[in-house]
Amino acid sequence: MAADNESRMEKTVNALKEEYNTIRTGRASASIFDKVRVDYYGTPTPLNQVGTISVPEARMIVISPFDKSLITAIEKAIQAADLGLNPNNDGKVIRISIPPLTADRRKELVKQAKSAAENYRTTIRNIRRDGNDALKKQQKAGELTEDQLKDETDKLQKLTDKYIEEINKVYEAKEKEIMD
User: Does the model's pTM come out above 0.90?
Assistant: First the structure.
């Protein structure tokens, strides 16, 4: 039971980290394209499956499509993803220079990161609530004594505190990365 709650909380923290990978900071990173889908012969396909994404320097990303006929579709997909990036193609590859973030854009990204962190904290609290409900049902069914219920509830609270603290650390690291 406790292991199930812990694995759900662990998955929640990992989901936050994945979401943070898609938030653009001042540095070039291939992970900002994780949610970009390209229209590949009528099928929305992840960008990394239709081309190679490389980062030759800190503020430059180069995308080499496997099929050169997809170059305009890739460009359109990047623009539609609303990442604030302007792709340029030379007929063979797409080059994207990462502009430095403006102070306003940084504040906006920090706000977005903070909102995501709060949503994931709520998810952790919901897991705790579900766990507490399950423990109370077990006690009513006679599977747990009053003392066991209290012990298990305390363990669940400690687990909740641990994962909320982890979410706070992930958020603080992302905030620092955005503001640098």
Answer: no
